[in-house]
Amino acid sequence: MAASYGRFWDQYELLNPLERHHYEIIREGLPCHLYLDLEYQVAYNPTADGDGMIQQLLRCIRSALKDMFGLELDHSWVYELDSSSSTKFSRHLIIRIPGMAFCSNIHAGCLVARALEIAASDGESLPDLQIHQDPDGKQASFVDTGVYTRNRAMRLIHSSKAGKTSTLQNTGRFGGASKTSHEMFIRTLICNAGGLVGVRSWVVWQAEGLLLFNMKGTRWCGNVQREHRSNGIFFVIDLQASHKIAGISDCQWSRATLPWGSLLHPGA
């Protein structure tokens, strides 16, 4: 059976909560958003501060995004789901970077690994992200790094594990504040990354040493810090200094000092 997200949701929300045991398959090699599975046993970690550990982890994620991609993490990008019980702390974080996605969950896992390296290099941060995983005090990471393998199954919001009653619910923090159940369902789908980003057309201005890519699959604009409803997005590369890449959109048109005259219809 196949269905759109909307049609699936229409049926899903009608189910008895005890019958919801649904998962999303993070398919190998497909784009996805950043996601994290966080957990520990309460009995083995009686003094653990889950919320504090998440804040510390997000600081490390922020540093990793800045270090690897030059991005500044905004907490509105973060969606938090909780299925904790009296015996186990369990949260999922889904981080949706506007206009972007990771090439695959393997790539997402690389960023998480970098964040944990940053935590390990900070003598004060490392203990905050370590938990005891058994009665003998054996230490492990607060972050489950085993969820970045191919075709991994991740539980959907409002679903529980078979035989369990704890369902994943919106905590109402970060980007989940004031979101409806349907909005959270869409926002927390890890592979709901939209169409693939690509190049619709391109043009070279040889005299000026510039290359322009007219992009498809994204309308994210750094000028207004959100996606446009209709404006096109371009990448302009300085061929004389190839490391200099700038993004530009129709809303910056009048301020751009580029030889637009050679294009018949910019932003088409």
From TrEMBL:
UniProt EC number: 2.7.7.102
Please provide, in alphabetical order, the Gene Ontology terms of the cellular component aspect for this entry.
Answer: mitochondrial matrix; nucleus
Give the matching Pfam families: Herpes_UL52
Q: Which domain of life is it from?
A: Eukaryota
Catalytic activity reads:
DNA(n) + a 2'-deoxyribonucleoside 5'-triphosphate = DNA(n+1) + diphosphate; ssDNA + n NTP = ssDNA/pppN(pN)n-1 hybrid + (n-1) diphosphate
Gene Ontology biological-process annotations: error-prone translesion synthesis; mitochondrial DNA replication; replication fork processing; response to UV
Class of enzymatic activity (EC top level): transferase
Q: What InterPro entries is this protein classified in? A: PRIMPOL (IPR044917)
One GO molecular-function entry: DNA-directed DNA polymerase activity
Instruction: Write down the PANTHER family for this protein, in alphabetical order.
Output: DNA-DIRECTED PRIMASE / POLYMERASE PROTEIN, DNA-DIRECTED PRIMASE_POLYMERASE PROTEIN
Protein's name in the database:
DNA-directed primase/polymerase protein
What is the organism of origin for this protein? Answer: Apatococcus fuscideae
